[in-house]
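[step 3/7] fold_predict: job queued, chain A
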Amino acid sequence: MNSFPPTLHSEYNNTFNSLYEKKCLGTLRKNIYNHMIKSTEKDYFDIDVFNISNGISKKITTKLLIIVVPELEMLGWKCKLAYGDTGLFIYKDELPSTCWD
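[step 4/7] structure written:
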């Protein structure tokens, strides 16, 4: 970052929460994309690892998954939260045998 964006102006401090959530949403999409292209359907997206490695709270990620899961479903994928909502399986046809609640 060569300079601060205009959105960091003190006049816009009431929008910082929204800006942060948008940034987190982009990070989540990028991480899920990377997971999908390098893994198999038997591998789940580890939400806890994502949260820890990106410093994002579970509360925010839970809110963002409400946006991301329907987007994936629109692309033809099925999604299932597992392992106490700490893992997200993304699969095409059948729920992987490695998935359990």
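[step 5/7] annotate
The mean pLDDT is 95.
Helices lie at 16-38, 47-54, 58-74.
exit 0
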